[in-house]
Amino acid sequence: MFRVRFAPSPTGYLHIGSARTFIFNWLFARRHDGTMILRIDDTDAGRNTQTSEDSIFDGLRWLGLDWDEQYRQSERLDLHATLASKIFEAGHAYRDFTPAEEAAEKAHATGAATWLCNPDMRELPREESDRRAAAGEPFVLRFRVPREPVRDITFTDEVYGAQSKSTADIEDFALLRSNGLPTYHMASCADDADLRISHIIRGQDHLTNTFKHILIFDALGATAPRFAHLPLLIAPDGAKLSKRKHGPVVSVTTYRDAGFLPEAYINFLCLLGWNPKDDREKMSINEIAAIFSFEGINRSNAVVNFSDEDPIDPKALWLNSQHLYALPVDTLASRLEPWAAGAGWSPAPGQLLQIAPLIRERMKTFRDFASVADFFFLEPLPPFDPAELVPQKGDTAMAAKVLERAKTVLAAAEFTHDGLDQALRAAAAEIGVKAGQMFQPIRVAACGRKVAPPLFETLAVLGRELTLVRLDRALAMLRS
RNA sequence: GGCGCUAUCGUCUAAGGGUUAGGACGGAGCCCUCUCAAGGCUCAAAUACGGGUUCGAAUCCCGUUAGCGCUACCA
After folding, report:
1. Among A106, A243, A245, A450, which one carries the catalytic annotation?
2. Domain spanning A243-322: which CATH class is it, in words?
3. Which segments of chain A belong to CATH 1.10.10.350?
4. From residue A176, how far is each of A13, A213, A262, A479 by CA, in Å?
């Protein structure tokens, strides 16, 4: 039985890289009927905030992906302490009484040179260590990285393959801070062992940490899980995505607020660093879950292609439009409701159902809804330049003639696609203008602009009464 | 600095010894067409560099360069 976990630390909002990590874990769990665990890694009390935790849940809720078990690291401190002392008692860790300031100074003094350990502390006799601890002297518990002799720590990453690192290059890292709280390495491994995590799927920034983690699992007498590291998401400038430097593009809420379909956004994220090995692009999460495997994950970082002018990756936009188009009309209509309300409109029952098919291929995201569908809801129309009413290769007189003729024809025509098609084409022929010259003034009169959905369907939805009112108003504009 | 990882069109990627190096987004053009979209077709666009191994290298090896990561009592 496979068990995986997503372990965010609540120190910001849900980052898109974190969201992707969650998704890949979820995919792996669902693919293998495994268990998906959400664990809040909140051992750094100083940096955690409730707001951040809320925004992580908000983000996950929007994505619509579930999990099976949930834990909070701060509620498991006893376990961490117990396992840390187990490591200490087994001789795999020692107390380092060096004051924090002094340690920082020392690290500074050596420049950026590799710091391995403080031999004085590492070799401190147990009796003295016990005595000083009993006297209340603060200490950091450090892992005693085996180095006599030096040996290689190895593991096989599911994505990156065979990995190896010499213990000569691993410093004696901290397990417990001087305030008694576990470090990330300690808490994470203790929980992973206790929760019997079978696969750790996380960002590649943890690849080198894995050697330390294997050391901890060994010291604990636990079998290390399998590891799968994911290539990172980076900015176009090659830097790691950060809020400070790149702004809101790194938050999933940006995409939610931009009117993305969560399923499309998930699709987009999946295609960053993973591919199905065929040419499929638009896929549902379930389609992906059915074929997901580590083999499809590549090893180089992926750029999220945003810019100052456009904070959204064009491919994400395209994928969203594909998902939008694939939505059944009634589903689309109901998804449109909040956006109509957000624009301040109150659609009549069934109105969105009529509008949806006319605008579905004209929206990249829901945010386009307001600008694409406004004329269905605004009455009267916002002011527009009467010159817009003039057709190609025509003049004001032609516009007026067209609108006059349209009035009489539309007063009688059947308001369906075919009825309007026949009536208006016949009218154009009668007054000697081209079809396009006939349609354009009517479109502008009815929609308030030149760019709109196809005329016949649009008029059919608008209805005879409103159409005639707008034709009259346009005619009046022309005459004034 | 040390250690680790990575390197195919602008971007996401396919091709794991033999291909005119394929697809997608974006860009350009054409077609379709009542405008705009959508759709169809076409074009431009890549194996970082240098050495090997091999009959043959994007693919394997070494080096260089570049990027990223780790090097905290952050995660």
Report:
1. A243
2. mainly alpha
3. 386-479
4. 27, 14, 40, 83
Determine if strand B comes within 7 Å of the CB of A72.
Answer: no
ipTM score: 0.96
Task: Summarize pLDDT for A343-377 with one digit per residue, the tens.
Answer: 999 999 999 999 999 999 999 999 999 999 999 99
- Please give the residue that has the higher pLDDT: either A27 or A118: A27
- Phi and psi at residue A36, in whole multiples of 5°? -100, 125
In 3-state terms, what secondary structure has residue A162?
strand
Q: Does domain A3-73+186-232 have CATH number 3.40.640.10?
A: no
Looking at per-residue pLDDT, the higher value among A109 and A378 belongs to: A378
Active site residue A243: yes
* Distance in Å, residue A163 CA to nucleotide B43 C1': 45
* E-assigned strand segments in A282-387: 302-303
Distance in Å, residue A345 CA to nucleotide B28 C1':
40
Lowest mean pLDDT among A51-65, A238-252, A427-441: A238-252
What is the CB neighbour count within 10 angstroms for residue A412? 9
Tell me if the domain spanning A386-479 has CATH number 1.10.10.350. yes
Asked if A61 and A217 touch (Cβ cutoff 8 Å), the reply is: no
How far is residue A9's CA from residue A402's CA, in Å, rounded to a whole number?
65
CA of A328 to C1' of B55 (A): 58
In the 436-455 segment of chain A, residues within 7 Å (Cβ) of strand B are: 436, 439-440, 443, 450-455
Which has the higher per-residue pLDDT, A2 or A46? A2
User: Taking all residues of chain A, what is their mean pLDDT, rounded to a whole number?
Assistant: 93
User: In a 3-state reduction of DSSP, which class is residue A359?
Assistant: helix
Domain A79-176 CATH (choose: 2.60.120.200, 1.10.10.10, 3.90.800.10, 3.50.50.60): 3.90.800.10
Q: Which helix (H) or strand (E) holds A360?
A: none
